[in-house]
Amino acid sequence: MIRAWKLAALIALTLSVFPTMTQTASQQGLKAPDIGSDFRKQAVEAFDREMAREKAGDCPDARTTYEGNICLGKDIETAKANYKAYVGALRSLLGLKLPSGSDATGPTGKPLTAEEQVKEFAAAEALWQKYLTAHSSFAFDVWRGGTIAPSMSTRCELQALRDRMRELDRVFDLMLRH
User: Fold this and answer.
1) What is the spatial distance between Cα 29 and Cα 111, in angstroms, rounded to a whole number?
2) Please, are residues 133 and 127 in contact by the beta-carbon 8 Å criterion?
3) pTM for the structure as a whole
4) Model confidence pLDDT, tens digit, residues 122-173
5) What does the buried/exposed string (b/e) look like for 97-111 if buried means 16 or more CB atoms within 10 Å of the residue's CB?
6) Distance separating the N- and C-terminal Cα atoms of the chain
7) Measured between alpha carbons, how far is 152 from 120 in angstroms, rounded to an integer?
């Protein structure tokens, strides 16, 4: 059996010979991997793509209502794909167990777990999708009977998707860009 003083001496010798084995990555001057960086990058890229498309303008070459409807149909599919990529990356970020300091109750209460955040985000998105459907249907119904109804509905949906992306960007700003 090793006596306590021998064990202490052995530990001290090991620590002096292999000091970097007991140091953290930051103490060694290494940067810890950012486990959410891929999701952050995906979210920012999807957001930036859609905002650039909005800035460029929708269907500037359409000369007729028919051409506009065809073009807007393609535009809305691209916007939906960007939105889906953006929301998917945000959901994935929420699902990570990112270090956020303490789980202790703070001035605004106890932080939600990653699972609770994902569940709350999914519930909010489901409600927003219902709103989007109702909002776009309303825009169509305002113009029902005319050839411009699909165009107005699609433009409404396109704007709502982009507005929602901006809303989420404000909520997730610190998580995405800092």
Assistant:
1) 31
2) no
3) 0.76
4) 999 999 999 999 999 999 999 999 988 999 999 999 999 999 999 999 999 9
5) eeeeeeeeeeeeeee
6) 53
7) 32
Identity of the amino acid at 83: Y
| Distance between CA atoms of residues 26 and 51, nearest Å | 37
**What beta strand segments (E) does 27-152 contain?**
none
What helix, strand, coil percent values describe the chain, rounded to 5? Answer: 70, 0, 30
Domain map (residue ranges) of the chain? 33-97+111-177
How many Cβ atoms sit within 10 Å of the Cβ of residue 96? 13
Tens of pLDDT, residue by residue over 67-93, are 999 999 999 999 999 999 999 999 999
Residue type, 110: K
Cα–Cα distance measured from residue 45 to residue 17, given in angstroms and rounded to the nearest whole number = 47
The token duo for 126 is 């489901």
CA distance 89 to 66: 35
Tokens representing residue 136 in the block: 């776009």
